[in-house]
Every structure is written in structure tokens, then in C-alpha cells.
Fold:
Amino acid sequence: MNLIFLGPPGAGKGTHAQRLMHEFGIPQISTGDMLRQAIKAGTPLGLSAQRYIEAGELVPDEVVIGIVKERLQAEDCQKGYILDGFPRTVPQAEALSQFARIDMALNLSLADEVIIRRLSGRRVCSQCGSTFHTSNLGGKDTCPKCGEKLVQRKDDAPDTIRNRLNVYAVQTAPLIDYYEGQGLLRTVECDPEATADETYLQVKEALGIA
Ligand code: AP5
Structure:
């Protein structure tokens, strides 16, 4: 199955895409992760993307379209994939339709105030990439899984989160109508009180694989 995960920053796209990847063995393709890895490695792609990401703006369409097109040609994508954070604009969606056949677009919907709370407390392991919330860390700044240092993403600063939400509303939310018009959209209204396990079950129900 070829899936798209849509939704505002912090709605849980990465969390649930990773769970599906581990349960069903199909790769999660996160353009955000790919761009952050390029920044860490200091590649030309990373150097050009860094200022957009740190400001909470979108990286230019032609850059992300190129990296996704190349990634989807890899062997591990031939039995399906989960696109997490791509497409993010209508031109990206139109480009994608030229080189991929999408089966479903899953939209995770969550209120802005919950997103701000989740993202401002999010910490990411610098080694294994696992994410945690400060409320579950008991004041520790090391990864409960591998013991390495936890860091805050630069774009999880409060002003940048607000900008990312604005960018989402203007540039990405139109994709909800775009995929609805194609009969591919499923929406999960995420309950802010639900655990990640409970939301994951809702995700699988929406995809028809529970
Ligand atoms: P990207 O990395 O894709 O960031 P994002 O879309 O802003 O999404 P996040 O990773 O912040 O959140 P998420 O929805 O994955 O939520 P998560 O599962 O972590 O992109 C970063 C930047 O890269 C962009 O701003 C842009 O500059 C650039 N970029 C990327 N793709 C691009 C594209 N296609 N075009 C142009 N530019 C692009 O969950 C959030 C937190 O909530 C976690 O701590 C998690 O543990 C917690 N959580 C999740 N679910 C639950 C639950 N049910 N209960 C409690 N906590 C939960």
C-alpha cells in the first residue's frame, strides 16, 4: 500500500508512520528526517534547506520533489511506503502523481493548542532519533532507550511552532480537499486525551487494517 500521512506539525504523523513501518515492514519516508540528516551531514542539500527549516518555512518544491522521486525508486519502496510530510503543497502533490500511484491519504487532525503543548515539550534523541515529551522524562535529559543526549529541535521553539502552523494552514491544508476530490482521503480526529496506542488503533481502523 502506498500511503500519504497528512496533518499539521505535531499531529503524530511520524509517531504513527513509524509504528506502521515496524508492524507491516513498509518504509516510512519522512522528508523532514531526510532534510535534517542532510543538515547534520553538511551536504549541499542540507546547507540549502537549513534556513527554511529553522524558520519553520517550507523548503522549495523542486528540492523536495527531487529527493522523494529518487527515494521511491529504491528497492525497499517497491512493496509500498508511507510518505510522512510529503506532499506539503499542491504543486508537490501534482508532481507526485506523475511518478507514484497513491492508494490513500490519511489526515491526522488535532487542535493547535494541543500541538503547541506537544511540540514545545518534545525532545529527540541525538543518537537513535526516538522522541519523548518532557512530562514523561522526570527531569532527565538522556534517552530512556539508548542513554544518549536528548535535544530540542530548533523548529520546536514556540514562535517557530506558530509559524509552522500558519504555513501549514496556508500551504498544506488545501491538500485535504485535493485528496478528498480524488476519493483517497481518510481523516482521524485525534482525541487530545488519547494515548499514542489508542490513536494508533484509530489510524489502523481508518486505513482498514485494524
Ligand atoms: P517535518 O519533520 O515533517 O515536521 P512536521 O510536519 O512539522 O511534523 P513533526 O515531525 O513536527 O510532527 P509529527 O506530525 O510527525 O508529530 P510526531 O509524531 O513527532 O518537517 C520539518 C521541516 O522540514 C518543515 O517545517 C519544512 O521546513 C521541511 N520540510 C519537510 N517536508 C517538506 C516538504 N514536503 N516540503 C517542503 N518542506 C518540507 O508527534 C509530536 C509529539 O507528540 C511527539 O513528541 C509524540 O511523542 C507526541 N505524540 C504523538 N501522538 C501522541 C498521542 N496520541 N498522545 C500523546 N503524545 C503523542
